[in-house]
Amino acid sequence: MPNQSPIIQIAEDASGLARLGAALFAATIRSEVDKKGSAFVALSGGSTPRAMHRLLGQPPHRRDIPWHRLYLFWVDERCVPHTDGASNFGAARWDFLESVDIPRDHIYPMPTEPGSKEAAQAYAKELEKTVPKNHEGVPCFDIIFLGIGEDGHTASLFPNHDALAEDARWIVPVQGGHPFVDRFTMTFPILNTAKQVVFLVSGTPKATMVKQILDSGTKRPLPAHQVRPVSGNVTWLLDKNAASGL
Ligand code: 6PG
Could you tell me if the CB of 149 is within 6 A of ligand 1? Predict the structure, then answer.
């Protein structure tokens, strides 16, 4: 099925964006649990999603989402201790995981051993064991939340990096980003198998990149351009500042 055109929703400001994101998270989980009794989600890190994550740990979402039916993975992670301020898992644990009734064995933090191909493979095995797969045997998330960098990266898939061309391994070790550290990241084969991918983008500094990515005519292919779910849809949740170039 050809890639559908993206859905774009624009919030007044960053807190409105967080509410939009949390509402979409909650609605998707409830719908998937109603349909199949469970839901499978992958979260990104960075600063943008934190306001949304904090809302997930507060009423009504803390109470209303069927957390015990949710399986939670990460799109990428920095190879730092979970207590480090740069840790994506550490931020999520602080922001909401300790406030919701998600079973501890439904939470799958990424490894943090720098550059370890074995650790990447082990996380891929967890995906394979836990997440329902599509007809090609690729784990198929119900919803994946992504951000973008001002350079057009998404996940920890950075411009001109070999990982952009990875078409076999689902998880790879990389280096890059701010902070410039060793990381693990999901690759496009996994991202593009999701039923729904949601870009959550806030702030004027991202406006030019949002326009470039959404302007399909842009010549310079950017990592975020390569997020084109084969049969899923892409939603852009933006605040007014991030959407100001559209
Ligand atoms: C990471 C993120 C990364 C993030 C963007 C935007 O671990 O760095 O997954 O892809 O989404 O860099 O980060 P900000 O939200 O902090 O701007």
Answer: yes
CB atoms closer than 10 angstroms to residue 27 = 12
Strands 181-186 and 171-176: antiparallel
Ligand 1 centre distance from Cα of residue 49 (Å) = 9
CB atoms within 10 A of CB 180: 10
Per-residue pLDDT of the chain (246 residues; tens, 9 = 90+): 446 789 999 999 999 999 999 999 999 999 999 999 999 999 999 999 999 999 999 999 999 999 999 999 999 999 999 999 999 999 999 999 999 999 999 999 999 999 999 999 999 999 999 999 999 999 999 999 999 999 999 999 999 999 999 999 999 999 999 999 999 999 999 999 999 999 999 999 999 999 999 987 666 689 999 999 999 999 999 999 999 999
**Domains in the chain, please, with CATH?**
7-239 (3.40.50.1360)
Nearest CA to ligand 1 atom 12: 149
